[in-house]
Amino acid sequence: MPGTGKAVGKVVRWGVKYGPHAIVLAQQAKEPAMAAAQKALDRQKAKRRAIEHASTVREGSVLKTFDPRASHGEAVWVVFAGDDPIAAHPPTPTPIPELIANSDLSTRVRPADLPTPAERLKQIPRRRGVH
């Protein structure tokens, strides 16, 4: 193929010239990416624990709310036994009555009403191959 040698030469020159910069950028981006991934895992873990907790109490349900004292804006899952709030996941120093003071309690969800992971997979629309 004509011109293949030139293309390889250009790639090698660009790699030598910009390779160190790419490595430094990748190293700098690693920590924020790891922190964001850990934050997402912590959110999922808090929800999962709240649902598991609610499934072990009589008439258990969960309510997604937000901590009015926190500046981070992360969701807090409050677990109810009947109409009594009993726990918050993740744990927060804010008292539970303050967490649910302005919340709509009719939006609570029972663990039995939530779809299982298999049901969630079935709800994902399948892509058809483009020909």
Strand content: 15-25%
**Unreliably modeled segments:** none
- Percent in helix: 40-55%
Structural class designation:
alpha+beta
Report the biggest beta sheet as strand number plus sense, adding barrel if it closes. Answer: 3 strands, antiparallel
For the largest sheet, list the strands in their spatial order.
1-2-3
Describe the structure.
By secondary structure, the protein is of the alpha+beta class. Strands 1-2-3 form a three-stranded antiparallel beta sheet. It has three helices and three strands. The mean pLDDT is 87. The two termini are 30 Å apart. Helix content is 48%, strand content 15%. 13% of the residues are buried. Strand 2 (75-81) and strand 3 form a beta hairpin. It has helices spanning 4-55, 96-99, 117-123; strands spanning 60-66, 75-81, 84-89. The chain is elongated and about 75 Å long. Residues 108-131 are annotated as: Disordered.
What's the short story on this structure?
The chain is an alpha+beta fold. The protein has three helices and three strands, in the order H-E-E-E-H-H. It has a three-stranded antiparallel sheet.
Question: Can you give keywords for this protein?
Answer:
131 residues; alpha+beta; 3-stranded antiparallel β-sheet; 3 helices; elongated
Topology:
Blueprint: H1 4-55, E1 60-66, E2 75-81, E3 84-89, H2 96-99, H3 117-123
Antiparallel strand pairs: 1-2, 2-3
